[in-house]
Q: What sequence folds into this?
């Protein structure tokens, strides 16, 4: 089954304790992205990756790191989490499509609800 | 001004009603437009793409007005299962790469 998986689904942690949220897709997608969703603000992009070893900042990258060592995996790392990073996080992936063409459908993981105390 | 704006709702409608949502976007160079559906606390899923000539998928009709920079979604014969948040999504070109920008969503509640 084609899917994007995230782990953990729920996490409560304390300020400053490093954590990693994993994301994996089995659709051979080049493009992967992390979003956070907060009430009234919608989905905001944190980081994205167009392929292995190619990552770039989205709109709200502060406090986050990512890596793309393999095509299927795109972990999100919070080196020193703070309460303002409490949010619902989604990983998404898609094909890149033709150069200059339209972006293809993004498939989302089930989400990770993070609470930082 | 937000890149993609939607009325947050909620829109409360009875079963069988017809309901329409609008969405405006600010970047005139945007090329692709979508409606995603998001159920409470779940991931967004593509409902339908929006084409220049307008398109229909069963009870759902999407339209695009490039001149006025807005997109609409019409749902006919609403079902209880249509209750969800509908996200307007637009692609924008950012430093040569196209990225998706999501609206904050319009919440629909269909009641018996």
A:
């Amino acid at each position: 089954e084609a899917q994007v998986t995230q782990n953990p689904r729920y996490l409560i942690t304390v300020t400053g304790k490093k954590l990693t949220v994993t994301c994996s897709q089995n659709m051979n997608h080049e493009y992967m992205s992390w979003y956070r969703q907060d009430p009234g603000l919608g989905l905001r992009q944190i980081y994205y990756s167009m392929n292995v070893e190619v990552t770039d900042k989205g709109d709200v990258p502060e406090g986050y790191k990512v890596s793309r060592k393999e095509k299927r995996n795109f972990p999100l790392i919070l080196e020193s989490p703070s309460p303002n990073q409490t949010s619902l996080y989604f990983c998404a992936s898609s094909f890149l499509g033709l150069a200059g063409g339209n972006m293809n459908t993004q498939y989302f993981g089930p989400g990770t609800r993070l609470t930082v105390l | 001004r937000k890149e993609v704006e939607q009325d947050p709702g909620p829109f409360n409608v009875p079963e069988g009603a017809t309901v329409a949502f609008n969405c405006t976007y600010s970047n005139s160079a945007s090329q692709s437009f979508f409606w995603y559906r998001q159920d409470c606390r779940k991931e967004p899923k593509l409902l339908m793409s929006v084409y220049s000539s307008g398109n229909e998928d069963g009870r759902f009709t999407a339209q695009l007005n490039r001149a006025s920079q807005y997109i609409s979604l019409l749902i006919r014969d609403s079902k209880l299962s249509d209750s969800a948040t509908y996200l307007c999504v637009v692609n924008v070109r950012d430093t040569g790469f196209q990225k998706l920008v999501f609206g904050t969503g319009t919440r629909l509640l269909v009641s018996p």
In short: Chain A has no helices and eleven strands. Chain A touches chain B through 21 residues (CB under 8 Å).
